[in-house]
């Protein structure tokens, strides 16, 4: 074995390990100081001021994180834009956050959502409302982790989880699974019990999901093949209406639900790439049938946006999401045949 792990000399490696050890002694204390819960009315701190290093981690993050969360108004941030559960170095798993007057509302919890929120400058202890569209693992894998990590970062106020039935069981099992860590942090760090902080609101049909002083959220059922229920969400704030399609096959009633919205964030799949991909797998007919019955093509998404009359169509939840050969223009071209408004080909951490 080389004595230069990760391309560094052994001495460098030891120095880094020791440094990391010393600063990690009470990591939550440092994080809690940096992430003091944003009160509901507290203006968000520009992330660059709090953590200039994070802003220069990647070119994309630098340009996105330069935008502070406004104390007034509605800001949409795409946290992860890849469809499907397989990790990719191109795009993170599905998740979005709507920041309304500085207060975050999270939609879906794909793997890495806590990290993506942190990169977007959202303070985890300030989380209060989290919405799930459906129970596919690319959307719910980190639901428990998000609440748990927010708690470990200093969350001590209630969090509401909204979505399809079974969330209660998932959270109860998650809390049970993490009993050792939870008890240690309560005893040794003075954390409050986690489970009583979590309020769960399960529903299986269209409804007014929640309404507070900033936003009204309604749901509709979409058609995601065998996953039922699967929801789209409509968020109406004082200055903007944003609709999230969730995962759905081509479903014209969604256009009615999204009628007149400023922004429609819609899932999308690129059929030519999938047909090419199918030549390389054994179960191609079954898989292609599943994809077509579950998702919306680049052409169909343009039809939905046009029928809804939205101002801006944001393409996200890309299937396939790990193929760099598919350019932004290839994603948008078919939709543009039908939709004359603005089309944004979503990127992780993009602020809209
Ligand atoms: Zn999905
Ligand atoms: Zn799905």
Automatic annotation (TrEMBL):
The keyword Hydrolase applies. SMART domains: Lactamase_B. It comes from the Bacteria. Residues 37-62 have a biased composition (Low complexity). Residues 37-67 are annotated as: Disordered. Pfam families: Lactamase_B_2. Keywords: Hydrolase. Residues 94-295 form the Metallo-beta-lactamase domain. One of its GO terms (molecular function) is 3'-tRNA processing endoribonuclease activity. PROSITE patterns: TAT (PS51318). The keyword DNA-binding does not apply. InterPro entries: AtsA-like_MBL-fold (IPR044094), Metallo-B-lactamas (IPR001279), RibonucZ/Hydroxyglut_hydro (IPR036866), TAT_signal (IPR006311). This is Ribonuclease BN, tRNA processing enzyme. It comes from Paraburkholderia phenazinium.
């Amino acid at each position: 074995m080389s004595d230069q792990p990760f391309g560094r000399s052994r001495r460098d490696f030891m120095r880094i390990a020791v440094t990391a050890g010393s600063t990690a002694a009470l990591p939550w204390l440092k994080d809690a100081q940096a992430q003091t819960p944003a009160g509901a009315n507290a203006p968000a701190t520009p992330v660059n001021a709090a953590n200039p290093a994070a802003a220069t981690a990647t070119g994309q993050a630098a340009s996105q994180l330069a935008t502070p969360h406004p104390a007034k108004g509605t800001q949409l941030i795409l946290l992860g834009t890849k469809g499907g559960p397989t990790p990719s170095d191109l795009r993170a798993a599905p998740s979005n956050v709507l920041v309304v007057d500085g207060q975050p509302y999270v939609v879906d919890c794909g793997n890495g959502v806590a990290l993506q929120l942190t990169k977007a400058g959202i303070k985890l202890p300030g989380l209060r409302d989290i919405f799930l569209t459906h129970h596919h693992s690319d959307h719910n894998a980190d639901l428990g982790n998000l609440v748990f990590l927010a708690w470990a970062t200093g969350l001590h106020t209630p969090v509401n989880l909204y979505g399809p039935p079974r969330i209660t069981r998932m959270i109860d099992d998650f809390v049970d699974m993490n009993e050792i860590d939870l008890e240690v942090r309560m005893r040794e760090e003075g954390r409050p019990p986690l489970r009583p902080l979590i309020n769960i609101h399960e529903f299986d049909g269209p409804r007014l999901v929640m309404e507070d002083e900033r936003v009204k959220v309604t749901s509709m059922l979409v058609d995601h093949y065998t996953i039922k229920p699967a929801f789209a969400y409509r968020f109406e704030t004082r200055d903007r209406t944003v609709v999230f399609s969730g995962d759905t096959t081509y479903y014209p009633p969604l256009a009615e639900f999204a009628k007149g919205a400023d922004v429609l964030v819609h899932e999308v799949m690129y059929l030519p790439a999938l047909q090419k991909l199918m030549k390389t797998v054994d179960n191609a007919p079954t898989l292609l049938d599943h994809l077509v019955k579950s998702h919306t093509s680049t052409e169909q998404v343009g039809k939905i946006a046009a029928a809804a009359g939205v101002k801006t169509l944001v393409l996200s939840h890309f299937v396939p999401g790990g193929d760099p050969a598919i350019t932004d223009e290839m994603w948008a071209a078919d939709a543009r045949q039908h939709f004359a408004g603005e089309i944004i080909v979503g990127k992780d951490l993009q602020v809209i």
